[in-house]
From TrEMBL:
Keywords from the UniProt entry: Glycoprotein, Hydrolase, Signal
Domain of life per record: Bacteria
Coiled-coil annotated spans: none
Keyword Metal-binding part of the UniProt annotation: no
Alphabetical list of Pfam families matching this protein: Sulfatase
Family under the similarity heading: Belongs to the sulfatase family.
Protein name per the record: Sulfatase
Keyword match Acetylation: no
């Protein structure tokens, strides 16, 4: 077969999963599962080990990825908001530059007319979270129920789009899996994997949250908060009652993780199919393949499930990227980066000048991916979770800073709360973790006199970083609000 002439611009295959924690990917040293196809992306390219989201929840992270901006700029600060389309997205820019663009899967940036996907010649998305089995999807042609398993359906839509391309068409294809989001419904072909009783528990599963802020101690994200719907069967009679909490949590953990890991396995199958397609059609060499997730997830860590909080299991995003000839195989990037940097990175790789995305606040990671280093690269990341006391999880609003050695978090007690909040009031409090002495983040040293100097430095650094990105400190319930409306 004659090899086509080198194409002048790379294509992009961007695989985004929902709530897939890095510590459930074997390339990141998972102790609980194996993901050989996802691992391939990093083994043949780069693995980023310090990639963080700037607001650990679905809608905001997606908006930050697409626009290269923080939540307070793109307006998508919570799952109740949809982002401001005056802020352009990287697929819109690439479409204008002649790329063939498509999006399949989870959108979650609003379903009203003003928030339907833009910048894609073809798209099919779920309303809100969507269903794992026989999901409804809508697109430019309307809405339909599609028979089958969501992860496989999205993969088939993606390969159908690729099949229709001309041999040299540059493309930007976004494959946005629903998995492994709650309620974790696996495909039957994976029912032999990760059986109950075989899944290793994390070391911090018994964390009693002593010494943490009052706001954190009351979140409804403990393993025992998993519902019967989540674990697919009623709790046995003998495990009920306060005195059986530890055993019941372990019982729920096994069932939750069984299904979470099985849904991940279907994603791994999807990545295998997509990588195979690129090779079979001679598109592997000039296609940038990204595997990432909108945020991390607690996999029983600290006794929790879900995300939202700034602890590392939730804050960290997996990020694997392959670009043969440009990114040396086996590259490991330690530079601190965020989801805000992704758009700048992809646009630079495609030869697009940063001004094409005028609001974007990120920096291109391309030099790091090529094995170079950047002298003045930031050594800290800014984080803000805006939702306060949302009715299901009761996670508090907070902002903070993570450096290589420390993490400082301010739970400022947003007195106004989110829609439907319980109006619970906790004192505004701080947490400080020494990530060198205490990488598991078990000991809050915010009030420890030995850390007073470090805390003062971090508070000043946090204030500078917050101002640098154009955000402002919380100033009480009368602070001008972001638009919560859907
Ligand atoms: Ca998510």
């Amino acid at each position: 077969m004659t090899r086509p002439a080198a194409r002048p611009r790379p294509s992009i295959l961007f695989v985004l999963t929902d709530d897939h924690a890095a510590h459930a990917i074997s390339a990141y040293g998972s102790r609980v599962n194996s993901t050989p196809s996802i691992d391939r992306v990093g083994a043949e390219g780069a693995r980023l080990d310090a990639m963080y989201c700037t607001n650990s929840i679905c809608t905001p992270s997606r908006a930050s990825i697409l626009t290269g901006t923080y939540s307070h700029v793109n307006g998508a600060c919570s799952i109740y908001s949809q982002f401001d389309y005056r802020v352009r997205t990287f697929p819109e820019v690439l479409q204008e530059r002649g790329y063939r663009t498509a999006l399949y899967g989870k959108w979650h940036l609003g379903t009203a007319e003003k928030a339907t996907p833009r910048g894609f010649e073809d798209w099919k998305v779920f309303p809100d979270q969507g269903d794992y089995v026989d999901p409804v999807m809508y697109g430019p042609g309307g809405q339909e129920r599609i028979r089958g398993y969501a992860t496989d359906i999205i993969t088939a839509q993606a390969t159908s789009f690729l099949d229709e391309l001309g041999a040299d068409d540059p493309f930007c294809l976004l494959v946005h899996h629903k998995a492994p989001h709650r309620p974790w419904v696996p495909h039957p072909r994976h029912e032999h994997l990760y059986e109950v009783g075989t899944i290793l528990e994390p070391e911090t599963i018994g964390d009693d949250h002593e010494g943490r802020s009052d706001a954190v101690r009351q979140v409804r994200m403990t393993l025992d908060d998993l519902t019967e719907h989540d674990v697919k069967e009623p709790v046995p009679e003998e495990l009920r009652g306060e005195e059986r909490l530890r055993e019941r949590s372990a019982w729920k953990y096994q069932r939750y993780m069984r299904d979470y890991l099985r849904t991940v396995q279907a994603v791994d199958d999807s990545v295998a199919t997509l990588l195979d397609w690129l090779e079979e059609h001679d598109r592997a060499e000039d296609t940038i393949v990204v595997y990432t997730s909108d945020q991390g997830f607690f996999l029983g860590d600290h006794g929790w499930f879900d995300k939202r909080l700034m602890f590392d299991e939730s804050l960290t995003m997996p990020f694997l990227v392959r670009w043969p000839g440009q990114i040396p195989a086996g590259t490991e990037v330690e530079a601190m980066a965020t989801n805000v940097d992704i758009a700048a990175t992809l646009l630079e790789a495609c030869g697009v000048e940063p001004a094409a995305l005028p609001a974007q606040q990120g920096r291109s990671l391309l030099p790091w991916l090529r094995g170079e280093s950047v002298e003045d690269w930031p050594d800290a990341v800014y984080y803000r979770y805006w939702e306060h006391d949302e009715p299901a999880h009761h996670a508090p609003a907070h902002y903070g800073i993570r450096t290589r050695t420390h993490k400082l978090i301010h739970y400022y007690n947003d007195g106004l709360g989110s829609p439907g909040s319980s109006d619970a009031v906790w004192p505004a409090q701080w947490e400080l973790y020494d990530l060198v002495a205490d990488p598991a983040e078990l000991t809050n040293v915010a009030e420890d006199p030995a850390y007073a100097g470090i805390r003062a430095e971090l508070e000043a650094q946090l204030a500078r970083l917050q101002a640098d990105v154009g955000d402002a400190p919380y100033a009480g319930p009368d602070t001008p609000r972001l638009d919560w409306s859907v």
